[in-house]
Design a protein that fits this description.
Blueprint lengths: L1 E5 L8 E5 L9 E11 L1 H8 L16 E9 L11 E5 L9 E5 L3 E3 L6 H20 L7 E5 L4 H12 L4 E5 L3 H9 L4 E3 L13 E6 L13 E9 L12 H6 L6 E4 L7 H16 L7 E6 L3 H9 L6 E5 L1
Parallel strand pairs: 8-9, 8-11, 9-10, 11-12, 12-13, 14-15
Antiparallel strand pairs: 1-2, 3-4, 3-6, 3-15, 4-5, 5-7
Helix pairs in contact: 2-3, 2-6
Length: 320
């Protein structure tokens, strides 16, 4: 089968198409003939080599989110899965391939009217957005700032905050065009990347959901209201400065809170329940996925170039 591996950490050109033997599912696993692969920000971070200290090595096959049809089941897996269209989380990699293995507890049947591309645009990002807001203790009526709202996680956070009764939903983004699109999804104020602008925007926010992190993270503590909470759900802009907490300590009397959030800390049954609800909501048209572009698997390098250049609004999907 064809797959895409990281031949060399660094630039997108380090990705390469390779041939591999077709995998076989082990106990508790299924084999999926892949129709769509979600290209996530974490894939780009892994490809860059920034997470090498966490055990990622050159030769790694990126991709944690696929949709397709189950073609085989390992020991202990109900054979009725075979032939079903599913969404699956493959783990920290293995998704950039024509066939992928996933543990059956991370596999969900797809509604008949939800496309594979939409599924891999929503499956992981929706869960991060849902539990990221919960981690921030978001409550109806509160103001929310989504930093880095143009990606799939940011887009879902905007929608869920608006559906949850936010008093205001501000977004940072790089262009007026993207801002207008985000308004159609629930944003009430559009700011620039530094968090400035936005006529009539709140002076401060009760919740900041940050997908970016990076060197400018400390400046966003100034955007928090007293008792405000910032939750970082992604690091697409890289790690923040080592002393980023100093800005928080200098505003000690505001009683601000800072946290990181990873969906890995959420019980599988809870992630599953949220995905089922969100897939159903998307199939009813109540949640909207934004697929930036669908590219062949062989064009993974181009997909990553577009992400690195900041050209992507929503999610790029690869198809074998």
């Amino acid at each position: 089968m064809k797959a895409v591996a990281i031949r060399k950490f660094g630039r997108p050109e380090g990705l390469a198409v390779i041939d591999l033997p077709a995998p076989a599912p082990g106990a508790g696993q299924v084999l999926i003939a892949v129709e769509a692969i979600g290209v996530g920000g974490v894939d780009a971070v892994i490809r860059s080599g920034a997470l090498a200290a966490y055990g990622f090595e050159e030769g790694h096959i990126p991709g944690g989110e696929v949709a397709g049809t189950v073609t085989a089941a390992g020991d202990g897996v109900d054979a009725s899965w075979i032939g079903r269209r599913v969404w699956a989380f493959t783990g920290v990699g293995g998704g950039y391939a024509e066939q992928a293995i996933a543990p059956v507890e991370e596999v969900l049947p797809l509604p008949a009217d939800l496309s594979a591309a939409d599924a891999v645009t929503l499956g992981s990002s929706g869960v991060v957005a849902h539990f990221g807001l919960a981690h921030a203790r978001f409550a109806p009526g509160e103001s929310v700032l989504v930093r880095g709202a143009a990606g799939s996680i940011g887009i879902m956070t905007v929608q869920l905050a608006a559906r949850g009764g936010a008093g205001a939903v501000a977004v940072t983004t790089s262009s007026a065009e993207r801002g207008e699109h985000l308004r159609t999804l629930g944003a009430t104020h559009v700011l620039d990347r530094a968090g400035e602008g936005g006529e009539g925007a709140p002076a401060g926010y009760d919740v900041v959901i940050d997908v970016v992190a990076g060197p400018d993270l400390p400046s966003f503590f100034a955007r928090l209201n007293p008792n405000g909470r910032m939750v970082v759900v992604g690091v697409v802009g890289g790690q923040p400065p080592a002393d980023f907490g100093t800005a928080m300590m200098l505003a000690f009397r505001k009683s601000m809170s800072f946290a990181t959030f990873s969906a890995d800390t959420v019980a599988g049954r809870d992630r599953r329940a949220v995905r089922i609800e969100q897939f159903a909501a998307a199939s009813r048209g109540e949640l909207h996925t934004v697929v930036h572009e669908v590219l062949p698997l062989e064009q993974a390098v181009l997909a990553h170039r577009k992400m690195d250049a900041g050209e992507v609004f929503g999610r790029i999907v690869l198809t074998p």
